[in-house]
Amino acid sequence: MPELPEVETTRRGVAPHVVGRSITAVEVRERRLRWPVPRSVDRLAGERVVDLSRRAKYLLFDVGSGTVIMHLGMSGSLRLVEGGAQWRKHDHISFHMDSGRELRFHDPRRFGCVLFCKGDPGKHRLIRDLGPEPLSQDFNVDYLVERAAGKTVAIKQFVMNAQVVVGVGNIYASEALFMSGIHPKRAAGRVARARLGKLVTAIREVLGRSIEMGGTTLRDFLHEDGKPGYFRQSLRVYGREDEACINCNATVRRIVQNARSSFYCPNCQR
Predict the structure, then answer these.
(1) Which of 21, 43, 185, 230 is the most exposed place for a label (fewest CB within 10 A)?
(2) Catalytic annotation on 184?
(3) 85: buried, middle or exposed (CB in 10 Å: 19+, 13-18, 0-12)?
(4) Which CATH number is associated with domain 141-264?
(5) Taking the alpha carbons of 36, 40, 44, 47 in that order, is the dihedral positive or negative?
(6) What's the pLDDT tens digit per position in 72-90?
(7) Which pTM value belongs to this model?
(8) What is the domain partition of the chain in residue ranges?
(9) CATH class entry, domain 4-123
């Protein structure tokens, strides 16, 4: 599933090719995505893409009269092709641009979505209850201390909750907890302020580094699969079960939390 860094890399790759461009036509060949593609998407011909932003894992195409809200789901991607290029299996929607290119939405599992919002997208039901962006000033130690107070849920599940903070997927949570020395099963409300401060810094670092690494592999988003060259970051603990901890040489362990694997060092993380 594309995570926040991959979605941000997608945004950065696509934006130069669509922002400032007009949509000349929209082809919808499959409406049965996670939610049916509304007819309002078909009627975007003549609209100009004013901006392309991201909120959590949603891509927001500002077209002046409203916003196209797009989510890549578990298997989705965007691909820029020359006008009239052959459609591939699982290409569901094509936005024809006045540059002569088309922006194709590809989603084999159809868990993604393409919706249209007339008002403030921040008030849309999919977005309004989301927590702050992890790289924004709103995500800080004061905020995390306030949200964690009295919580008995494990800290890993806590930071993976999009209503607390967006974009901290399973790998990033394991990595950030290792970097801040916090055991993934410790109750969120029992993590001291100083260590929550370290966790905020670690989350910022691992996500920021992942975005940067994704960006270094990105060219012009016109290669054949539409993927943003997903990076393989240098992981400190995730996926390293039974290997030596890079800090203390203890054996890295794996546990399952909410059906997701958590990796940690029993010596470094308390």
Answers:
(1) 43
(2) no
(3) middle
(4) 1.10.8.50
(5) negative
(6) 999 999 999 999 999 999 9
(7) 0.91
(8) 4-123, 141-264
(9) alpha beta
